[in-house]
TrEMBL record:
Pfam families in alphabetical order: Ig_TRAPPC9-Trs120_1st, Ig_TRAPPC9-Trs120_2nd, Ig_TRAPPC9-Trs120_3rd, Ig_TRAPPC9-Trs120_4th, TPR_TRAPPC9-Trs120, TRAPPC9-Trs120
Species the sequence originates in: Trapa incisa
Source species, domain of life: Eukaryota
Main location: Golgi
Protein name: Trafficking protein particle complex II-specific subunit 120 homolog
Length: 1190
């Protein structure tokens, strides 16, 4: 049997192509490729070379439309014993190919060619083509006559034209030789024999039968030559005669051959136009051909040679003619019959050819599994002969079956599939198509697939191909490890190692072995490396950008969408990046991974390899790193692994499909679950963009990175250093805060940071930050549990409670060294520095209440009611105040020691001692009705209060310094009704809540309660809530002054008192039995005139009136009761009188007045409901000490 036969094979002229001399293999392939292009020569093209010596036997030669067909046999072949039966089996021509530079002696070339041609006795035309001759060879060759044809050096197009001309010449020569042979056969006849003809002496009857058959066989052979000459009409005429003669003589074998030739002539005559009627005709005739071949086989079954091979060849020819999808049923039936006939074939080479052809035809109609089955039969026949060449053939045949069995090597996969798997991994990595999973993994094929891979491994080892052996062993181990025993797994590992030992170092293979590699996650960048998109149109370029790590869209948030177009990962040139991958070794041996690193197809990334050891049946999560080197896109389809001595690429998508197949029951096992790894949600590779170099600020907290331990309210100064670890300067920076308790940051040096810009690479700036510990939430169970000292277990530090310093910074807008290709400006960065504040419970409030008391003031020569004018300087006032007592100061608007105190009860639950210091800010001057600013206020400190641990103490805060200077109508009556109704409501009912809170906050802002513990720990208590609660109902009594202020002063000689104020202790007493001149002063604190009736009373220590009655101990001159006075607005009036004290002792002077015609302001301040109710004002007591003798 011959391979690759078809119905048209009978019209092909077989030409042997032989290499002459030494020719490099590449040149031989080049020359033969040029020759093979001329397998069809039109008869019209050979007419110029054709010479008709006598009348041609091909009367119906189609010179205009006919063709001569060549079948070039590279390397030649042996002669066939069936050449007389089928003329197309003969070698009709021999073409030698010589490369002149390798064979300089043309005589030797001619001798070698002539010697090679002796083996082809049937050759009618012989030519030797010598390519690239030198000038001397051209000159020498032109003198020689014979079959040597020189092809001078020229371009390929010229050489092909020259070669085409020479092939046309050969075609014309063969046509003329065919004419000679036909003419000779018609005139003299010829003896035609086949191996079926008996070689023994023939009986007389057989001799007679042979003579009768000779004419029919000759007509059949002439028809074969007519087909070779390209004249199907002439061939059909001769075949018709041969059929009739063979039928009459019972020569069924030659009858089938002639019928087969007639079908070939029919197809050639149709010029390739095939219709259903032609198909039916061909099927009918070829079924008759097969039938007659079978008859001849039965008839000649006694012969040693069986014609079964011709029956099977005819079956294959018909199957190849019908080989199309719509006729697949007929083709399968024919091929099934041919496969059944293989059992009767004696020659193993015939069975080999038959199985090859059956496999090819099954593959042509899409029956790939049947084709793979017969291909395995071919491979097994090769493997039966233990030699290297047969092993190579078996390996090549088995490699063709791997696609049908879904075990093909990646190297043999189509380029389209490779591009789809690798090129689009970043765009479609999140999508796994179900049909691809089903096609890749089919559990029911496991045993058969393992058998095929073992056969490939065995053939590769015999063939001496270590790379193919390594590939087969890797596929077998990776895909079917659950079905292989531990001993078998170790055997495959040894096979991998042995194959790698025969390979050069650094060999790559497309098929990965172990371990299994899957993408675990992309770690978020640290907080100081957050990347923020930059909006150049805004000064606050970071506003509106989301910087939750390196992702513009975070693909790892819960409930995320699978839309991969939204995922974008940004890396920076020159900055290391990390990717977490998980490795699994599900086999029973230790696995040593010599190196593994990220596989990046783009050239803008440098990956760093690491080595890993994996124990049996274990998995491990490792970190792979690298550095982007230039701007652009980065694609990471998987990892490159150097294991078992060979470098392979492990794609993440392959493992995703594997895990999906395991989840759906299509794959034998999940390698990660079998190694004890947790189930991991699929993490796809996002779109990765590399941006130019950016600045990188690295923070450092002075004093270390430990927690800053503070008590509640403690004030602490922290220095934070910022170093630019990047390669470009920081040109823009903005400081803000985030998180809880942002108000605990009192101040930060914004201007200092801006002053250091641009911050060059390697430069550092130190920023001072003032912190104040916040108040702990008392409802927190951690706060309420146990003691809160440093050594206690009740530490109150939560990650979410501390504020964070946020710095948005960016580099230059354009980078000359490396800029983005799309023209976008580089992004900025966000630095988040958590302030590690650990707050412990400090002093705690127990309760707060408002107290009031009156202490009589001493009557002196000084004016107890200072009057401030526009010309008074703050320095003078401050000087006078400094001379006053620091503990309790006289109220300048009441002239007495009437005081109000805020009492705070504090508890110390800590293990340290606290000292409390209360300070009050007092304004130094008045300007009209307004207070001066805080920076002009004088601060007075009161004596410190010590609170030991586990003890409580009370702190008194005087409130008298916070009186308003003027009782203003606009402040008191702003809720006036439209109909002029009297002011019956209280102030808290008449004013809005906002105004009340503003007043309280203003009061609180001037009171500071500071504490100190030890040498370096100090802070300030938050008393806002305590004071606000205590003053909620009495704030107006604290803030608003009385309408009238009373005071007493000693008068000497009716002279004006000096401006220099003397201390209260210098002249704090008067003499008994002497007339003492005095003045009572009344100040109007409103903006309207007040009319009143004034009374002055002097009382002794028992509280009895001592100026009236028979027992009076004080004599007086002047008026002490019913004094009518009018006091101008914001002015004072004086009334003089004298007292004569008869008895030394302690006395008290009290002034009181009844206001006449009180207006609405006074009634609202007095909280009266009736317009007829009198307004009574009483001044505080003034103390007078009388010394002397009675």
């Amino acid at each position: 049997m011959e391979p690759d036969v078809s119905i048209e094979t009978g019209a092909m002229i077989r030409v042997a192509v032989l290499p002459i001399g030494h020719i490099p293999a590449s040149l031989l392939r080049d020359y033969t490729s040029m020759l093979l292009r001329h397998h069809t020569i039109a008869l019209s093209a050979v007419s110029s070379f054709y010479t008709e010596h006598q009348k041609s036997p091909f009367a119906n030669q189609p010179w205009d439309s006919g063709f001569l067909r060549f079948s070039f046999v590279i390397g030649g072949c042996t002669s066939s014993p069936w050449e007389d039966f089928q003329s197309n089996r003969k070698i009709h021509s021999v073409i030698g190919i010589c490369h002149c530079p390798s064979s300089p002696d043309l005589d030797s070339v001619t001798d070698q060619f002539n010697s090679a041609c002796k083996g082809y006795t049937s050759a009618l035309v012989k030519r030797c083509f010598a390519f690239c001759p030198s000038d001397s060879q051209l000159e020498d060759g032109s003198k020689k006559e014979g079959n040597l044809i020189l092809f001078p050096p020229a371009d390929r197009q010229t050489q092909e034209f020259h070669l085409n001309t020479m092939v046309q010449d050969i075609a014309a020569s063969l046509l003329m030789e065919f004419e000679k042979w036909v003419l000779k056969a018609e005139s003299t006849g010829t003896i035609l024999k086949t191996p079926l003809d008996s070689q023994a002496s023939l009986s007389s009857e057989e001799v007679i039968k042979a003579k009768k058959r000779r004419l029919g066989r000759a007509q059949k052979t002439i028809g074969d030559y007519c087909l070779l000459a390209g004249s199907p009409v002439d061939a059909n005429a001769h075949y018709s005669t041969a059929l009739e003669l063979a039928r009459l003589t019972g020569d069924y074998f030659w009858y089938a051959g002639a019928l087969e030739g007639s079908v070939c002539a029919l197809l050639l005559d149709r010029m390739g136009h095939i219709d259903p009627s032609l198909i039916d005709e061909v099927k009918y005739r070829y079924n008759s051909v097969i039938l007659h071949y079978r008859k001849s086989s039965i008839q000649d079954n006694t012969q040693r040679v069986s014609p079964l091979s011709f029956e099977l060849e005819a079956t294959l020819k018909l199957a190849r003619f019908l080989c199309r999808r719509d006729l697949a049923k007929d083709v399968v039936e024919l091929l099934t019959n041919a496969a059944d006939g293989a059992r009767s074939l004696i020659d193993a080479s015939d069975r080999l050819v038959l199985f090859v052809e059956i496999a090819r035809l099954y593959g042509a109609i899409g029956y790939h599994r049947k084709a793979a089955f017969f291909s395995r039969q071919v491979a097994q026949m090769y493997l039966q002969q233990e030699n290297r060449l047969n092993a190579i053939s078996a390996m090549q045949v088995l490699a063709m079956t791997t696609k049908a069995y879904r075990i093909q090597s990646r190297a043999t996969a189509s380029e389209e599939l490779l591009n789809d798997d690798v090129g689009s991994i970043s765009a479609n990595s999140g999508k796994v198509h179900h049909h691809s999973v089903v096609s890749l993994f089919e559990c029911q094929w496991s045993t058969l697939q393992m058998v095929v891979l073992r056969e490939i491994l065995l053939s590769a080892v015999r063939a001496g191909d270590p790379l193919a052996a390594w590939s087969a062993a890797s596929r077998l181990l990776r895909s079917y490890y659950p079905l292989i025993t531990p001993a078998g797994q170790n055997g495959l590992a040894n096979a991998l190692a042995n194959s790698a030992g025969r390979l050069p170092s650094g060999t790559r293979c497309a098929d990965p072995a172990l371990p299994f590699v899957r993408l675990y996650s992309f770690p978020l960048l640290p907080s100081q490396a957050d990347i923020v998109k930059r909006n150049p149109a805004r000064e606050d370029w970071w506003v509106g950008s989301v910087s939750s790590g390196p992702f513009i869209y975070t693909p790892f948030s819960k409930g995320e969408s699978d839309d991969s177009a939204k995922r974008e990962l940004i890396w920076v040139v020159g900055e290391p990046v990390q990717v977490l991958v998980e490795l699994a070794n599900p086999c029973g041996f230790d696995l040593r991974v010599d190196s593994i690193y990220l596989s990046v197809h783009s050239e803008n990334f440098d990956a760093f390899p690491i080595s890993v050891n994996l124990p049996p049946n274990s998995s491990k999560v490792i970190t792979l790193s690298g550095i982007p080197t230039s701007v652009g896109q980065v694609t990471i389809p998987g990892c490159t692994v150097h294991c078992f001595g060979v470098i392979t690429e492990h794609l993440f998508k392959d493992v995703e499909n594997l895990l999906l197949g395991a989840a759906q029951g299509l794959v034998l096992s999940d390698p990660f679950r079998s190694c004890g790894s947790m189930k991991l949600r699929n993490v796809s590779v996002p779109k990765i963009s590399v941006v130019p170099q950016l600045p990188l600020l690295v923070p450092h907290i002075n004093g270390g990175d430990g927690s800053i331990i503070l008590y509640e309210g403690e004030i602490h100064h922290v220095w934070i250093g910022l170093s630019n670890a990047g390669t470009v300067p920081v040109e823009q920076a903005h400081i803000s805060f985030s998180g809880k308790n942002q108000d605990s940051v009192i101040s930060v040096a914004h201007e200092m940071l801006k002053a250091f810009l641009p911050l060059k690479p390697g430069a550092q700036v130190m920023l001072p930050i003032t912190l104040k510990a916040w108040q702990l939430n008392m409802s927190d169970p951690d706060t309420l549990s146990g003691r809160n000292g440093l050594g206690s277990t009740g530490q109150h530090f939560k990650d979410g409670n501390s504020p964070s310093l946020v710095i948005h910074y960016s580099g230059p807008i354009t980078n000359s060294e490396d800029s983005t290709s799309d023209g976008n400006i580089p992004p900025g960065r966000r630095l988040v520095v958590p302030l590690p504040i650990c707050v412990f419970q400090g002093l705690s409030f127990v309760k707060a209440r408002l107290l009031s008391m009156e202490i009589p003031a001493h009557v002196t020569e000084n004016n107890p009611i200072p009057t401030f004018g526009e010309s008074d300087s703050s320095e003078d006032v401050a000087g006078s105040e400094i001379k006053m007592d620091k503990l309790v100061k006289i109220n300048p608007f009441r002239g007495s020691w009437g005081l109000r105190f805020l009492e705070l009860e504090l508890s110390n639950p800590t293990d340290v001692v606290f000292e409390i210091n209360v300070s009050v800010q007092i304004e130094n001057s008045l300007s009209g009705d307004n207070l001066v600013s805080d920076q002009d206020a004088a601060e007075f400190c009161y004596p410190k209060t010590r609170i030991d641990r586990d003890y409580s103490a009370r702190v008194l805060i005087p409130l008298e310094h916070f009186k308003l200077p003027v009782l203003d109508e606009s402040f008191l009556l702003r809720d006036s009704s439209a109909d002029g109704v009297s002011w019956s409501g209280s102030f808290s009912e008449k004013n809005a809540k906002a105004e009340l809170n503003a007043s309280i906050e203003k009061l609180i802002s001037r009171i500071k309660v500071r504490w100190q513990s030890g040498r370096n720990s100090s802070g300030e208590l938050n008393i806002k809530d305590a004071i606000q609660k205590a003053l909620q109902t009495s704030v107006m009594d604290v803030l608003l002054p009385d309408p009238l202020t009373f005071g007493f002063r000693l008068v000497k000689g009716h002279a004006e008192v000096s401006d220099n104020v003397e201390t209260l202790n210098s002249k704090n007493s008067v003499l008994a039995n002497e007339i003492t001149p005095m003045e009572v002063m009344v100040r109007n604190n409103t903006k309207e005139l007040i009319k009143m009736s004034l009374n002055v009373t002097c009382r002794d220590v028992a509280g009895e009136n001592c100026v009236e009655g028979s027992d009076a101990t004080v004599l007086w001159s002047g008026v002490l009761s019913g004094i009518k006075m009018e006091v101008p607005p914001l002015q004072e009036a004086r009334h003089s009188f004298s007292l004569y004290f008869l008895v030394p002792g302690e006395y008290t002077l009290v002034a009181a007045a009844v206001i006449e015609d009180a207006n609405n302001i006074l009634r609202a301040r007095a909280k009266t409901n009736s317009p007829d109710e009198p307004i009574f004002c009483r001044g505080p007591p003034f103390h007078v000490r009388v010394v002397g003798t009675a």
